[in-house]
Amino acid sequence: MKVLLVDDKESVVLGIRKHIPWETLGVSQVDIALDGKEALLRYTNDPADLIVTDIKMPNMNGIELMEHIRARFDRAVRFVVLSGYEEFEYAKQALALGASDYVLKPVDIKEMTGIIAKLLSELRKEQERDAQRLRFQQMIRRSLPALRQQYLNEMIRFRDERQVRLRDKWDFAEIPLKPSSFALLAVAIDRFDEISHKPVEEVELSRFIVENIIGDCLSSWGTGIAFYAEWGLLAMLVNYDPAEPAKEVKEKLLKFADWCRTSVEKHSGLTVTIGISSLCPELRELPGAYREACEAIEHVYFFGNNQVVHVEDLIPFRMKRTGYPVLQEQELLTLVRRGQAESAQEAAASFFRALEGEEGRPADFRFSCIQLVTALNRLLHDLGMAEGESRPLPETWFELCNRAKLGELKEHIPVWFHHAALQVKQFVQAGSKSIIGEAKTFIEQNLLQPIGLSAVADYVGVSPNYFSGLFKRETGISFVEYVTDLKLALAKDWLEDAAIPIYEIAERLGYHDRKYFREIFKKKNGITPSEYREQRLGTSTGEE
């Protein structure tokens, strides 16, 4: 810190310089001047941080000294004025000019020391803030390219009606365009989903190449700027001449965009799809222009790529709505429900043939595909199958419908339906086996009870008719045959115990007509119960 002491009485400045502990206060240099003119010269050659000055002096008084320094130098400086009682009006004037404090003569060293310590502390804090502010300003200048891209992205995404605020940002970011009369072109790198799965170095190289080629092309237009609005989508802002007819501007933009497209393909091996907005007269209309350019890209990109389209050329498509192939959907769902996988895949292709016979926007086509897979998803849930069990891809159906191109949807959706039909078939078969398994267990546990087909069907939760057909299909025999076989197998076990009479065995198994029991046993085994016992035990009971 530097201090300048100014008084026409040398004894005053020498006394102050001698008696105040400057080193303790962090002051490295204390200069003196005997009038305002000399002080101004010293300050000009070697600026001080604090000036202690008398008010009344020859050549230039303290008030004049303050006025000159304030007017000529843009630097933080503090003033302390010295005055006598008769000069108090001058002191008030000095305070009005920005003096930090005043001290009455004769000077009290202790008081002066306290004032100087306080002012120097404040000055240090202010200088630190100024230094930090300067560092931040330098950092901002270094980061201006990134800040410019941030501002541009905000301007094309969020509408701000404060035109003055937008102009301030535009000027601060030093954007090399007029802040009016724009056209916005969106440049999408084709197949970027595939590119993005490559190593980061290759991805960034692709983006860098496209950005530089587009930048070279921009120089031929005149004024323009390109920046990445998304990872694989470059936005271009160009000025146009508002005095030119809009039709001529549109033709020039189409020609320029096609040149950009062919330049990228020629010099990089990559291809791009370019969408062009309608003319945008004002900054605040940029978000609408960006949406238009993206809509144009979406339309072309959905049906193909490596093309240029102007949003105004999409008006006919906006006026039409895509008809939904209801009959094809119903046929598809029926085939899935029946588990007919091959037929389902062909029917899905038929759905797309019917859909492509309509004209409309990509959003309409996407909605139709979402509607179709929603119906499939609902069917699978109705059948008790979770989507995750039948999903053939690592991503959900709906995510792909929202981002894929028409060609990809035509490829994937038939496969989804084929897979779903296979899963339904397997699910139904597995479900049937589970039902029959539960039924068999129930029958075995209740074999000696008077249970019938309806009771078993009710237990497993299906209708008697469905259960009867399912049981026959899964086991190869009827429900009655199966129960009879179980009972006769148990009868054989009991017949090997001579202590159990045959009539009791028949009654235990629910056959109260012993003659009927004898007939069905013989029909199944070729011999009567008593003959079976005689063969097994070697004795005859003569019960029959």
From TrEMBL:
Q: Which SUPFAM superfamilies match?
A: CheY-like, Homeodomain-like
Statement: the UniProt record of this protein carries the keyword Nucleotidyltransferase: no
What residue stretches are annotated with the Response regulatory domain? 2-120
Q: What is its main location?
A: cytoplasm
InterPro entries xref list: CdaR_GGDEF, CheY-like_superfamily, Homeodomain-like_sf, HptR, HTH_AraC, HTH_AraC-typ_CS, Sig_transdc_resp-reg_receiver, Tscrpt_reg_AraC-type_HTH
Compartments it resides in: Cytoplasm
Does the record carry Cytoplasm as a key word? yes
Q: Where is the HTH araC/xylS-type domain?
A: 437-535
Its keywords, alphabetically, are: Cytoplasm, DNA-binding, Phosphoprotein, Transcription, Transcription regulation, Two-component regulatory system
CDD domains hit by this protein: REC_YesN-like (cd17536)
Q: Which residues carry this modification: 4-aspartylphosphate?
A: 54
This chain belongs to which protein, by name? Response regulator
Q: Which organism is it from?
A: Paenibacillus ehimensis
